[in-house]
Design a protein that fits this description.
Blueprint (H helix, E strand, L loop, with lengths): L1 H6 L1 E5 L19 E7 L2 E4 L4 E4 L3 E5 L6 E5 L4 E7 L1 H6 L6 H11 L4 E2 L2 H19 L7 H29 L3 H16 L6 H7 L4 H12 L3 H19 L4 H7 L5 H12 L3 H6 L3
Helix pairs in contact: 3-5, 4-5, 6-8, 7-8, 10-11
């Protein structure tokens, strides 16, 4: 991932996408990315449900979310634009960041449809950016060229997104808003707070109301969702790091290793060490 470190952005194709998406085990991306599907399909599991991406759709993946690859079709054709947060923040982009941010947070982990014309234009932009990034020809202003091409891509995405933004936000019901805020709060606080009461208080509603609305919208209770996110975080550490279980316990906000092991075994019917052994 040389380009990502050197320029702040990198383009992956269907042939190299495995460098970003691990197979057969949960993973959390190090950087945010746009994943575009031109043909075929890919199926991912994330915290709450399965996501199937088909032709003419895209998704915004997020380092705060744990994913698991389920399947990829033989005719799968895609581009993934991965970028560092500080890189996009440093660019002098003038589009309404708030509107784009709201939309991205709402649509996070949901396949967003493209028109064929929009996809064609973005696909060409992404391929040209990839050509520049991959070029071994000496370019005096290569860094500046990459920045401008990535800015063009961002403006294209902002334009496409703005077409749907107002409708998407205005059509959000009160119940959807409660779930949306809960999931956002959870993504930012799950390492420190596993109590439903904490998330209900942040919206000034009762725990019973929060749980009822979340259950109705997702099919899972608020406590089940909190547990599944913590368990997925634990799986990532257990199968992709050599951290001692005691250290993982601390990172995940447990008071001690026993509390973590008890929590893990309660939900997976195996101990953290037994789970880790599956991937050794």
């Amino acid at each position: 991932m040389i380009a990502l470190e050197k320029f702040g952005v990198e383009i992956f194709t269907q042939e190299t996408i495995h460098q970003r998406i691990s197979a057969d085990k949960p993973f959390r991306p190090e950087n945010p990315a746009f994943l575009f599907i031109k043909s075929g399909s890919i199926k991912l599991k994330q915290h709450l449900n399965d996501i199937e991406l088909s032709a003419n759709t895209f998704i915004v993946t997020d380092p705060q979310t744990v994913y698991e690859l389920i399947s990829i079709s033989d005719d799968f054709q895609s581009r993934m634009v991965s970028y560092k947060r500080d890189f996009i923040s440093a660019l002098s982009l003038k589009f309404n960041r708030l509107i784009t941010y709201r939309y991205f947070r709402q649509q996070m982990n949901v396949a967003v449809p493209f028109s064929q014309d929009d996809l064609d234009v973005v696909w060409k932009s992404v391929n040209f950016l990839k050509y520049i990034l991959d070029s071994e020809t000496e370019m005096t202003y290569k860094k500046e060229i990459v920045e401008h091409l990535f800015s063009v891509f961002c403006y294209q995405m902002a334009g496409i997104i703005s077409k749907e933004d107002n409708n998407s936000m205005n059509q959000m019901s009160r119940q959807e808003e409660i779930v949306f805020v809960f999931l956002n709060d959870l993504s930012n606080n799950h390492l420190n707070n596993r109590n439903v009461e904490f998330y209900a208080e942040r919206q000034s509603i009762t725990t019973r109301h929060l749980s009822s609305v979340v259950k109705s919208a997702t099919g899972k209770s608020a406590s089940q969702i909190i547990a599944s996110i913590v368990i997925n975080e634990a799986k990532v550490y257990l199968n992709s790091s050599k951290m001692p279980i005691s250290e993982i316990s601390t990172v995940l906000g447990f008071s001690d290793q026993y509390s973590f092991s008890h929590f893990f075994k309660k939900h997976l019917e195996m101990s953290p060490s037994q789970y880790r052994q599956q991937y050794q």
